[in-house]
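Example complex used in Figure S2.
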Amino acid sequence: MILNGIGKYFIFLGKLFTNREKPKVYFSLIIDECILIGLDSVFIVAIVSTFIGAVSGVQTSHNLISPLVPLYVVGVIVRDMTILELAPTITCIVLAGKVGSSIAGGLGTMRIQEQIDALEVMGINSASYLVLPKVLAALIMFPMLVTLAGFLSLCGGYASTVFTGIITSYDYVYGIRFQFEGYNVFIALVKSFVFAFVITSISAFKGYYTTGGTLGVGQASTNAVTNSCIGVLLADYFIAQLLL
Amino acid sequence: MIEVININKTFNGKKVLENVSGLFAKGKTNLIIGASGTGKSVLLKTIVGLIEPDTGSVEYDKRDFIKADEDTRREIRREMGMLFQGSALFDSKNVQENVMFPLEMFTNTSKSDKLDRVNYCLQRVGLENVNNLLPSQISGGMQKRVGIARAIVMNPKYLFCDEPNSGLDPQTSIRIDNLISDITEEFSTTTIVVTHDMNSVMTIGEYIMFIYKGKKLWEGNKEMILDSDVAELNDFIFANNLMKELKDRG
Ligand SMILES: Nc1ncnc2c1ncn2[C@@H]1O[C@H](COP(=O)(O)OP(=O)(O)OP(=O)(O)O)[C@@H](O)[C@H]1O
Ligand SMILES: [Mg+2]
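Predicted assembly (494 residues):
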């Protein structure tokens, strides 16, 4: 059952890249999807990541306040937690909910209203035409969103620790610059790429093969989100294993 | 010309089509008729390749469609226009964009030429001044007509309509029937129309295939249909008293 599903998923991925339409066709579609997937998600990503940073700041300083530990360590820990793990992973889990459900819902509706069949009868590779732009747009936009999330979570950490007087601005900034490793940012970006692909392709797969009327569309959206989240966490684990 | 040979299709152990064969001639309006749930839509979808039959073949002017490779299939499909039972308009595009879509995908003519063609097709289905409305903002019957406009916009060699006039008033119905048969004659298209409207059958049925529970029970034309001796077909036709009177009058 599960193996069958996974097999179908890979065949679906193959369909995305064979018999494509003219590149010109994709260009404007990708722009549209960038707006839908990227710009429309900025607000939620900003809120989530700022709070993640703020909470990390409060919790680390709460656990670490001791005369033996220099205060700037709070900055170091907030930085390493958010940039490496929380900003990319939590952001992408949130996006799996937002982007994943809208992709699956949209494609599911097109499936049950026979819009996908209409494309096929016209001689268009519907999988590639509908899904490839979404995947490419996500590959472009997710790294930007994750970069923004990383930055804002550092700001959130600053706000929650400096403005409340737990540590000084100097300590926090010293902390986040202390032994800074660019490699962690690279890993965060790798994660965002992989998650972008995982989320959009799994959600599209679920939506594209929707059956069972309007009820099925709801189920497809739910399945898209749960499966994407599992996919993101699995991928997170493997990336950590491979790259750290 | 489209030839269908010995099509069988089973869904979850339930036989939906059984040994259906038929020849749909070029330049003629071919009808598939039958009661609700007998497999008309499944047959039409099998012909256009949206459903794979268990056995049997479909030939477009002697080109085998079922076994064809992906490129040949696409080639044949670009010669098709199809109206779906539920219209299947793209709901994120407005009326004009829907009808223009095949032109955008497959032709390189100028924007104004495309627009002229779109407006011409919309006018032929009796729709004007709705170009900028979304499918959700027009009635079901209007959606049907937009669907027909989209199906004919590329001047298809093969035209398929699944219940083109269900949900339309009698006048518009007749208008759509006439449009379909005019186009068929004008461009020598091979047209297949699924319907259960006896009015359409008697006006445009040049070849009629009667499907009953997945089997072809009768074929012929509108001149022969009232005199058939197939009980199931007679039940289907004379469910409507008007038809009975028509027959009695001769
Ligand atoms: N994808 C499918 N999976 C399973 N069964 C199906 C599927 N499509 C159609 N059927 C079954 O095939 C039978 C024929 O359906 P079809 O849609 O061809 O009817 P129809 O003749 O077009 O009826 P109507 O006039 O109401 O449109 C029905 O019993 C239906 O339940
Ligand atoms: Mg039907």
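Chain A touches chain B through 16 residues (CB under 8 Å). Chain A has nine helices and no strands.
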